[in-house]
Amino acid sequence: MIYFKILILAILLFLLYLLIFRYKAPWVPIYRSDLARLDQLIELESGKTFYDLGCGNGRVIFYLAKKYPEVNFTGVEISLIFFLICCLRKFAGKYKNVKLKLFDYMLLDLNKADYIYAFANKLTIEDLARKIEKEIDKNLVVVSYCFPISSWEKFLLPEENNPGEKKNLIHIYQYKKGDV
Description:
The chain is α/β, with parallel strands linked by helices. It is 38% helix and 18% strand.
């Protein structure tokens, strides 16, 4: 009986390891208090497309999709578990302006996006920046939550630097193709 319990524990720990480290970054959702701030800072426009790369449980896209039914949202998630959670949320909330993709966003064509949001670790966000520089053929708004894109300091929007904040977690960049 003890061996069975140890086996179950080992399997659970292995699954936890896969869930956290297999996909380049552990799942950590945006703070609820930062959702409203994100909404104020990015100023979504009707008819535009917003990509949430590594959307996790969909906290960002479903919050914004409810407020902006005229904006198209695409959540991209590589984890089957979180993808299924997003599918359930989409079905339950009847979101017509949300599309979900079970895909590695580093392999995805991002040219349809007007806004890109990512909560990725320091290395992954720099990889994403290089991908955008190499593949995107238009201007767009890129939001990095938590980790700044060090190579994009020239694209950083000054209004996102709120001196009253203890710790600035929202980094907004106005990427301009010709300025790379």
